[in-house]
Structure formats: structure tokens, C-alpha cells
Design brief:
The complex is a heterodimer of chains A (250) and B (494).
Chain A: H1 2-9, E1 26-27, H2 32-37, E2 42-43, E3 46-51, H3 63-68, E4 74-78, E5 83-84, H4 86-92, E6 99-102, H5 107-119, E7 123-129, H6 135-147, E8 151-156, H7 163-172, H8 181-186, E9 192-199, E10 202-210, E11 216-221, H9 230-237, H10 243-249
Parallel strand pairs in A: 3-8, 3-9, 4-6, 4-7, 7-8
Antiparallel strand pairs in A: 1-2, 9-10, 10-11
Helix pairs in contact in A: 5-6
Chain B: E1 3-7, H1 11-30, H2 36-39, H3 41-44, E2 47-51, E3 56-60, H4 62-66, H5 75-81, E4 86-89, H6 92-106, E5 113-116, E6 126-130, H7 135-138, H8 141-155, E7 160-164, H9 167-175, H10 185-193, H11 204-212, H12 218-223, H13 226-232, H14 235-245, E8 261-271, H15 274-295, E9 297-308, E10 314-324, H16 327-338, E11 347-354, E12 358-359, H17 366-369, H18 373-388, E13 393-398, E14 408-412, E15 431-438, E16 443-453, E17 463-471, E18 476-481, E19 487-492
Parallel strand pairs in B: 2-4
Antiparallel strand pairs in B: 1-6, 1-7, 2-3, 5-6, 8-11, 9-10, 9-11, 9-12, 13-14, 15-19, 16-17, 17-18, 18-19
Helix pairs in contact in B: 8-18, 15-16
The chains are: A alpha/beta (250), B alpha+beta (494).
């Protein structure tokens, strides 16, 4: 018994929380506190799920990851929620030849397309928008990504905290799934699972699950992804010259 | 066996148009001095290709066709119909060059290619590609054919195609302009039956003697027993006929790519100044860099040959200290070398050859990572289009407009757009909606206003004040207020 346990202990796929040192390549996100919580950044391969509302800066957050690595390969956007604008891509730092947009009509088709892209070895990163993903599909994408040195960013709508909503959804599907949705949700075999929550002045990141690391909640980063009137406001606030002073120049 | 025949019916014309448009694009990009006469030449004038040997027009563009010029007209007739037609000389040598270049382009995608431009077949040039041995690698007929057609679309040539059990049968279908991909014997047989005998490669004598016994269509020929044919015709004809019927598979000489690089371009017009050669040489360097990249090679010496009408070919040998492959590194060397050069007479064609290659040392690991990238990308796009439909993939490109609706054009990913002008702005959203939606939630403005008017040539002028607004959940929206002070959401910042 003891012997068999020690054999199991040596298995390379078993990770113990006390082994912090990992040799895998990480892509830095460019936010110090977030990178620290993620042990250096996002893993260079695998499936990353980001659950957030659309429009809280969830793509710009991964700017460095998308633009700075493996630049000779494609970045594929599958089933984006609107018409992707090329000047925005340029501002982000992507060249037009590097981008491919795939429009699909069904959820299954976009998962299929994502898997094909990952397997083709021509892609650096596949950005996929999908409403729900089950364990099997997640596993397929994870394997396709890790075996072909690619990254898959999966954007899903924010998960409901109340499990009742999830229950009703699965029962509609026929109730074939025996595992409860909440279990299903957290046990997806993926590299990283994060949730983004926008607050008026910052972005709060919850790491719900990461491989070789501990989950961590509420990492607040100041993230600017659009131009704002900050400069004007600042100038107005720091304007010490009164009207009179302006006149006195004359 | 399954072969596809690609019948390129206007190679000379295609290459002329390509050269002229690439020149135009280059001109726009570099913002050189305006010279409209040459740039508009390819697109707006009637052009015809004239073969002096047979005194016939062999190829003509749409504008020439509109003027009444048809293939088969004599030079005098064409000139009478349209006095300002631009005539290009037909040269077998040049067509062969272009066909070889096309074969080089297809070779990474398909192994067995047969070049078909025999002199006796009367200015027909085409390629045959064997498909049955490739299907296994591409995973089906559809992805394979998509990949090939995409490569052909990138080569920007006009062609008819047909597919059948032998090269001969596929050629008949291609010349019949069948343009449908078939792979089951029944379909092929049905398609072949409809073809007239005149487009087969039978000699006119054989066609005559067949017509005398009432055989005018391929259908009757397919139905005839072999012994019947044996009594009537000589050996060569029998061989052709059995090949057409798919009973024998004649030996073919497969295309082998050259061991060295050799690229030849006919110039669309005579060039007197070495500076004006630059765009065409750039094009050739691009070909060279693709060639080297695919083969994992560098080179330290190349030679550019400039052809003239009368004077002997001028060779310019360029050496570089360091073996290199990119356009960026070779082009400055070329322009330095030719700065003080004077051409004895206007140049008509240029060629780029490269004989010596150097292996890349394997220490440079990242070179390998993108070596097969180009082919992999094409295969991927071909596969996605095969399953999801032709319009399912596209690459967003910048367009010439400052309005959010028209800023980005989406075109099928096969197109090779050379849009040099890109309107860039930092308030472009990540996504726009197809149509603006009314703003129905509470928001706070964090940037703006930016007032945009539509261009004057649009029918309905619009004036909008754009803002970036933030909702309570911190979602950033692109909103605008129209002239009637209604608020709309137009896009999202992700």
C-alpha cells in the first residue's frame, strides 16, 4: 500500500500546492498585482475562460498577450458580438493580415471552428465567444490548445451566483446531465478561469481557478482602455489662474 | 485516378493587368509624382492579345469585348472596330513562363502537376493537377478543392476548370467551360457526354471521318466498342480515345520545380528609367522571399536580368555580405546598384534568378516555428470555408472613411487587398452594431464629444455627436446624439 502510494506520488501530473516552482512559459499581462497572483501571467497554451459582461475592457486586458507573442501567427476571432473594427485592432497592435474573423450560425459550429483553428498550428490565439460550454467541450479545446502551442480565450457571460437559474436551464435541456451545474462549472478542465467585474473606476478580477496555483478574489487593477476626459478635468481642477489673473496679463 | 484541369485562357492579359495594378498600388503608396496615363491603362482601355503567327486575336478584356472585338478576329478587323485598342503581342515563351510560375505556386499544395502547353494544341495553356492521391491528406474533396481554388484566386488569373478520370477528359471538360468539380464516374460521364467533338484534341481529319458516320458528340464515342475504333484510326488517336474514356492512363511528365529560383515578368509598358523598375523588382523580390522562406534558405547573391527589344540582355549581379532573404534587405541593394545605371533602350521584361542558396543554421530556433505557417493558414481557411460557407471567414480591413459605419470593410479572406490608406482614430470601438440601438440605460459620459458629419456624397447627410459613455456595470459604450437629440448606442469598447 505504502509502496503504491509513493509511486503515485512521483507521477509528473500530480501537483502539490507546495511545489510553487513551475517551468512553464507565462505571458505577462502587464499588471503587476495580477501577474503576481497568476504566478507570472497567463500560461502560453491552454484554454482560459473569462466570464464578464461585454464591454468592461475584457479584450484590452489581454492586449500584451494577444499582440506581443508569436506575432507571425493568426489571431482568430470566432463569433464576435459585433462587427470588429480594424482601427481598433491597429491601435491594439495587430496587423490586418494577422487577424481572421469567423462568423458561425450555431454554437456547435463555433466550437468546431475553434478546435480546427487550434489544431491547424497557424494560430497564436483563438478568441471565442460562447454562452455555455460543458466539460467535454472544454476538455477538447484544452487538449487541442496545449498540443499545438496555442492559446484559447473563451468569453462567456457572467455566471449567475444563484444556482436556481442554472438548474432551470439544464432541466430544459432534458436533465440528462447528472452533475449539478455548480459542480460542473467549477470543475472544467481548463488552465485558468477568471471573472471580471467592472467598478466605476477600476476593474476587479476574480481568479476562480488556476492550474498550479490558488484562486484569489478581488484583485483590483486600474485599467484604461478608452480615451477619457481626464486631461481636461485635471486641467480644469488645477487651473489656479482666475479670470482676473488672465485679464491681468493685458 | 482523378485529375483536375485548369485551363488558363488569358494568361498574358492577366499578367499584364496584375503588373499594371501593382504598379498603381505602389505609386499610391509611395505618393510619387502623379502619372495617370500608365496607371489607368489596365483598367479602362480595351486590351487585346494578338498572335502574329496565326493573325488572330487570342485574348481580350471585357472592355474590348464591349467594343465588338472577339477572339479569332484579325488585327485589321480589331483595329477597325476599335482604333484605340491596346495590343499586346502573344508569345509562347512568355505564356510558358507564366504557367511555370503558376505551377510553382501550386506545388506546395499539390504534388502531381502536369504542365500542358504543347505547340500543336494551338495556344491552349493549362495545368493538370492529380487529386485522388491528395484527398487523403486534405480530408475530403471539398477542402482540397477549396484550398486549390483559393491559391488560384490569389494568383489572380482567369480560368475554366474541369475534373475527370484522366488529364485528357478533364481538359475536354475545362475547354467546355464546365467549371464544376466532379468526382463520381457517373457525373463525369454525364458531363463528358454533352461535349462536342470539336473541343477534343482529335485531329480535324479524325473528327471529319467520325462526323461522316454520324458521330458528333463525345457521348457516341463513349458508347462505341474499342474494336470498332481500332479498325478506323491510327495508334495515336486510339490512345487518346481510350484515355478520354478512362480506360488507359497515358504516361505524363510531371512538373518538377526548379532547383534554383527563376522568375520572369513581362512589363506592361516600356520603361526607360531604372527608378520606374523598382515596383516590378519589388514584386519579384517578394516572390523570392516566399520561395526562400518555404525552403528554409538564405541567399547571398542574386541577379536581375533586364530584357530589351534589340539590345542584349543586361545582367545585374548583386551580392550581399550577409546571406539574407527578405525584400527589405534586397531592395536597397538593388536601388543602390542601379542608381547610376542607364538603360540603352526601353526595357520590356525583367527576370530575377538566384542560383546559390545557403542553409540556415538550425540554432535559430524561431525560424522553424513559422516555416509551414503559410500553408497551414491556407489549409485552415479552406477547411473553415468548406464547412461553414464561403462568406464565413473574413479579414477586417481599413477603408477610406471617417464614419464608424464605413471604417472597416469585410471581405472574404482570399482577397489580397492593397489598401494603402487607413483612417486611424483612437475612439474607434472594438465592435459596432449593424444598426444603432436606442440608448435605454443610465450612463455617464467619460469622453467626448466628437462631432462627425457624413461625407457630402452620401445621399442622406447625418450629423452626430459621439461620446464614450459608461454604464453602472462599467460597460463602455460608443453612444451618439443625433440631430433630433435622440440617443443611440453604436458600439462597444472591450
Amino acid at each position: 500500500m505504502k509502496k503504491s502510494l509513493s509511486v503515485l506520488n512521483k507521477h509528473p501530473h500530480i501537483w502539490r500546492a507546495r511545489d510553487q516552482k513551475q517551468s512553464e512559459t507565462k505571458f505577462s499581462l502587464g499588471f503587476a498585482c495580477l501577474d503576481k497572483a497568476l504566478n507570472g501571467g497567463v500560461a502560453s497554451t491552454g484554454l482560459v475562460r473569462i466570464s464578464s459582461l461585454t464591454g468592461v475592457g475584457e479584450l484590452s486586458l489581454f492586449k500584451q498577450v494577444i499582440c506581443q507573442y508569436r506575432t507571425h501567427k493568426l489571431v482568430v476571432f470566432i463569433n464576435p458580438p459585433g462587427l470588429l473594427q480594424s482601427p481598433w485592432l491597429e491601435n491594439l497592435g495587430l496587423k490586418a493580415q494577422q487577424v481572421l474573423v469567423v462568423k458561425t450560425s450555431a454554437e456547435q459550429e463555433s466550437l468546431w471552428a475553434a478546435e480546427q483553428c487550434l489544431k491547424s498550428t497557424a494560430c497564436h490565439c483563438v478568441v471565442l465567444w460562447s454562452n455555455a460550454i460543458n466539460q467535454k467541450e472544454a476538455r477538447r479545446l484544452q487538449v487541442a490548445a496545449t498540443h499545438n502551442d496555442a492559446l484559447c480565450l473563451l468569453y462567456t457571460p457572467p455566471q449567475q451566483q444563484a444556482p436556481s437559474l442554472n438548474y432551470s436551464k439544464t432541466s430544459l435541456q432534458g436533465g440528462l446531465q447528472t452533475s449539478t451545474p455548480s459542480q460542473n462549472d467549477s470543475s472544467l478542465p481548463i488552465t485558468l478561469d477568471i471573472a471580471l467585474l467592472g467598478t466605476p473606476h477600476a476593474l476587479s478580477v476574480n481568479i476562480r481557478k488556476q492550474r498550479h496555483g490558488w484562486p484569489k478574489d478581488n484583485i483590483v487593477i486600474s485599467h484604461r482602455w478608452t480615451p477619457d476626459n481626464h486631461a481636461i478635468k485635471w486641467a480644469m481642477a488645477h487651473n489656479t489662474l482666475s479670470d482676473q489673473a488672465l485679464h491681468s496679463v493685458n | 485516378m482523378l485529375w483536375a484541369y485548369i485551363y488558363c485562357y488569358q494568361l498574358t492579359l492577366d499578367s499584364h493587368i496584375q503588373a499594371a495594378t501593382s504598379k498603381r498600388a505602389h505609386r499610391q503608396g509611395a505618393r510619387n509624382e502623379a502619372n495617370g496615363s500608365s496607371s489607368s491603362l489596365a483598367l479602362n482601355t480595351p486590351i487585346a492579345v494578338y498572335c502574329s503567327k496565326t493573325n488572330k486575336i487570342t485574348q481580350c478584356n471585357d472592355i474590348a469585348k464591349k467594343e465588338g472585338i472577339e477572339i479569332g478576329h484579325g488585327l485589321a478587323q480589331a483595329a477597325a472596330l476599335c482604333p484605340y485598342v491596346h495590343i499586346l503581342p502573344f508569345s509562347e515563351e512568355a505564356e510558358k513562363h507564366m504557367l511555370t510560375q503558376l505551377a510553382h505556386r501550386l506545388y506546395p499544395l499539390a504534388s502531381d502537376i502536369v504542365l500542358d502547353n504543347h505547340i500543336h494544341s494551338n495556344s491552349v495553356s493549362g495545368l493538370a493537377v492529380r487529386l485522388d492521391n491528395l484527398i487523403h491528406y486534405y480530408g475530403g474533396h471539398k477542402p482540397l478543392w477549396k484550398t486549390l481554388t483559393q491559391a488560384l484566386a490569389e494568383a489572380d488569373i482567369h480560368y475554366h476548370f474541369g475534373s475527370a478520370w484522366t488529364v485528357e477528359a478533364a481538359k475536354v471538360l475545362a475547354q467546355h467551360k464546365y467549371n464544376t468539380y466532379l468526382h463520381t464516374p457517373d457525373d463525369i460521364k454525364k458531363a463528358l457526354s454533352a461535349c462536342p467533338l470539336a473541343i477534343t484534341a482529335l485531329s480535324s481529319k479524325a473528327i471529319d471521318s467520325l462526323a461522316r458516320v454520324g458521330v458528333t458528340r463525345v457521348q457516341q464515342l463513349l458508347a462505341m466498342p474499342v474494336q470498332e475504333l481500332g479498325r478506323r484510326f491510327d495508334n495515336n488517336t486510339i490512345m487518346y480515345l481510350t484515355a478520354l474514356r478512362g480506360e488507359t492512363f497515358p504516361r505524363v511528365t510531371l512538373f518538377r520545380p526548379l532547383e534554383h529560383f527563376d522568375n520572369f515578368t513581362l512589363l506592361p509598358f516600356d520603361i526607360e528609367n531604372t527608378q520606374h523598375l523598382t515596383p516590378f523588382v519589388t514584386q519579384q523580390f517578394e516572390h523570392l522571399s516566399h520561395y526562400l522562406r518555404a525552403r528554409n534558405l538564405y541567399t547571398s547573391s542574386i541577379s536581375v536580368h533586364i530584357h530589351f527589344r534589340e539590345a542584349p540582355v543586361m545582367d545585374i549581379n548583386i551580392h550581399s555580405a550577409l546571406p539574407q532573404s527578405s525584400v527589405k534587405s534586397w531592395l536597397p541593394l538593388f536601388s543602390l546598384k542601379t542608381e547610376g545605371l542607364e538603360l540603352p533602350e526601353p526595357a520590356t521584361a525583367i527576370a530575377l534568378t538566384c542560383q546559390q542558396f545557403e542553409e540556415i543554421d538550425s540554432q535559430n530556433g524561431d525560424f522553424f516555428s513559422d516555416r509551414f505557417n503559410d500553408v497551414a493558414q491556407k489549409q485552415l481557411i479552406g477547411r473553415l470555408n468548406a464547412k461553414l460557407g464561403d462568406n464565413s471567414t473574413f479579414q477586417p480591413r481599413a477603408a477610406d472613411s471617417h464614419q464608424f459605419e464605413y471604417m472597416t470593410v469585410t471581405e472574404p479572406s482570399a482577397g489580397d487587398c492593397t489598401g494603402n490608406y487607413a483612417y486611424s482614430t483612437d475612439i474607434t470601438p472594438t465592435f459596432t452594431f449593424d444598426t444603432p440601438k436606442p440608448l435605454i440605460q443610465a450612463t455617464q459620459i467619460c469622453f467626448g464629444p466628437v462631432r462627425l458629419h457624413s461625407e457630402w456624397w452620401h445621399d442622406s447627410p447625418i450629423k452626430r455627436d459621439y461620446f464614450i459613455a459608461q454604464t453602472e456595470q462599467s460597460v463602455r459604450l460608443l453612444v451618439f446624439k443625433d440631430e433630433e437629440s435622440r440617443w443611440w448606442v453604436h458600439g462597444l469598447f472591450c
